[in-house]
Write a structure and sequence with these properties.
Chains A, B: GO terms for molecular function: DNA-binding transcription factor activity; transcription cis-regulatory region binding. The structure is a homodimer. By secondary structure, the first copy, chain A, is an alpha/beta fold. Chain A has twelve helices and twelve strands. Chain A is elongated and about 90 Å long. At the A-B interface, helix 4, helix 5, strand 2, helix 6 and helix 11 of A face helix 4, helix 5, strand 2, helix 6 and helix 11 of B. The structure holds a DNA duplex.
DNA sequence: ATTCATATCGAAAACGTTTTCGATTTAACG
DNA sequence: CGTTAAATCGAAAACGTTTTCGATATGAAT
């Protein structure tokens, strides 16, 4: 084992624990001579500060928590990567928990993180979350919180988002510009803000271009683990319900890929018969055929940005400075590929 | 804030801290009456034990570390999911770090985890790791360690693996059985055990079926972030070098998908001209065209199994029982799809 | 020699919990 | 009533660190 403590260093040098501690942290009231001596023997004995004791004393763990709906997910794993990268640079480690799109789980995971006393929490909401008391509680307990992607507008904290509405507008507009007259929408669940915003962007694009909005063209997906199957099912239903659809704007790539798969099976040609635009730009979308036109959503940057905001908040809180919450909006862009005519 | 401590409960009830602590943990030497009283006021004051103090006292953090080469990766994210799921059930949280396939990073991350004093470590080696001193050090420090997927045979710890050699043999054999006579192999880097084993399985299948082994048919990929591009490049080179190849066994799906993309671009028909078998069964492989024949590698189960082994080791160490390292081998299976003839 | 400033150190409290062990009370029994 | 056993509690040490604050020593200035 490695139970080398300050005490041991102190004893071997016959000085006090306090001096050893201060020497290691370069306090000004320790002579250069003893500093050198202490650092040398610390190195020699392979001293590593006991994180538990440091945590207890300093009241911080240099650890943050991350709650996301799903780990096996191209977008979210990109976010994770961004967060970890940035956090490491600042000396923070990241505990990752998964809500599996369930509100109950989300609450439980939050409690777990709180009981571990993480220094801050990053999260993207579960689809099932409609009540935000658990988040308000967090904030009233003064635990730094930053939400990203799937946020609640009503919760008072920093956020990192994209302009889902505008991106959806762009996507739908592109379908219109490429000649689509009758455009369906596979939307996400009813609750999450970004699913709502994407729907609104779709609707706005239609009305701005004098295309009547037809609710029967809007299909709902849970966008959970069954995304791919939902894409297939909705594509199938769409064909049964309507024979004049020539374009679909789909809430997320995985669903879009399910739809493409089903259309392919049935013999519907993309983009000749139906054009499709997805959302998120999963890597997969660039290698299926036809390659999928989609909205690129910068997951890695979102993760980095989210940590940056959290870090700032943690720092300001430590220094007892006033906190101002910020909402950072990241750029998206339309990636034109082969699932649409141009 | 929430600075409710044992002391506060003790003061409100006018009893000692020791009794409060013991009451909360159902020690036998506390009367039922006071137990009830303590639990009630603890509930009332919303008492949460201070993890830092508990850690310091008990010398454990109920946290484990996980080091993987890459987060944005279908297989590894499945593993993460399995680990988190299992760990949570046993009350452990998971800190995730990424080595980015670099040996230096891997060492650094290991140090970070050690300095946080995690109760155990799960890891899959970076491609760049040839030296195992850092792992041996871990073991000599008695830190529980379980390796999975990309392991080092020589390191003395528990492991969770698949039989890469046999799986590769099966994959290659399938190519042979479907009529391929001249089979190339896109292998992984030279160091990792599983890359070696897959190569050996390929070779064995050839020799068992009287097909001469031709080293010029073996191409190397780094299998890092450029996997997809490497697949394209190698596919291109392969066609320049040889005009008689009719099958390829490829170290990992992402490279295989790159190869398919390139063949598609050039006009080589799959599987008519060349059959392809990948490895890992990324989700993507089931939706590209042609769908990719591959070896299914159970990431989620591997994660679960790895945590189970780690948990056992942690427990036995706490009870000072002898530790016996185990190697668990998980089943793989050949997924027959459209990139091969049958 | 006295005063003052500066440099250097250490004692000790504190963080909040767990656990040992001794003290006290209560009940039980002859 | 005295003795013993069982039940119930609390004092205190310990985990290892950080930090305040006072103590001492050294040197310079008067």
């Amino acid at each position: 084992m490695n139970p080398v403590t300050l005490k041991q260093i102190a004893e071997t040098l016959d000085i006090s624990i306090a001096t050893v501690s201060k020497a290691l942290k370069d306090y000004p009231d320790v002579s250069k001579k003893t500093k050198l001596l202490v650092k040398e023997t610390a190195e020699l004995l392979n001293y590593k500060p006991n994180a538990f004791a440091v945590n207890l004393r300093t009241k911080e763990s240099k650890t943050i928590g991350l709650i996301i709906p799903e780990v096996v997910h191209h977008f979210f794993s990109s976010v994770i990567k961004g967060i970890i990268a940035r956090a490491e640079k600042k000396g923070y480690l990241v505990i990752i928990l998964q809500s599996s799109e369930s509100y109950e789980m989300e609450k439980k995971q939050l409690d777990l993180l709180l009981s571990k006393r993480v220094d801050g929490i990053l999260m993207s909401l579960a689809n099932g979350t409609a009540n935000f008391k658990h988040l308000d509680d967090l904030i009233s307990q003064e635990v730094p919180l930053v939400m990203f992607d799937k946020i609640a507008k009503i919760v008072n904290c920093s956020k990192v988002i994209i302009n889902d509405r505008m991106a959806a507008y762009t996507a739908t507009k592109y379908l219109i510009d490429s000649g689509c007259k009758r455009i369906a929408h596979f939307r996400g669940p009813l609750l999450p803000q970004n699913s709502i915003d994407r729907f609104l962007g779709y609707k706005k694009a239609l009305s701005d271009n004098n295309i009547p909005y037809d609710p029967s063209l809007v299909y709902i997906c849970e966008c959970g683990e069954r995304s791919f199957e939902e894409g297939k099912e909705n594509a199938h239903k769409l064909l049964e319900d309507h024979n004049d659809v020539d374009g679909i704007f789909i809430n997320t790539d995985l669903v879009a890929i399910g739809a493409i798969t089903e259309f392919h099976r049935i013999g519907v040609k993309i983009p000749e018969d139906i054009s499709i635009v997805g959302f998120s730009n999963w890597f997969m979308s660039s290698v299926i055929s036809p390659t999928l036109t989609t909205i690129d959503q910068p997951g890695y940057e979102m993760g980095k940005e989210a940590f940056k905001l959290l870090y700032k908040e943690i720092k300001r809180r430590k220094e007892n400075l006033p906190i101002k919450f910020k909402t950072v909006e990241l750029e998206t862009k339309l990636i034109k590929r082969a699932s649409t005519r141009n």
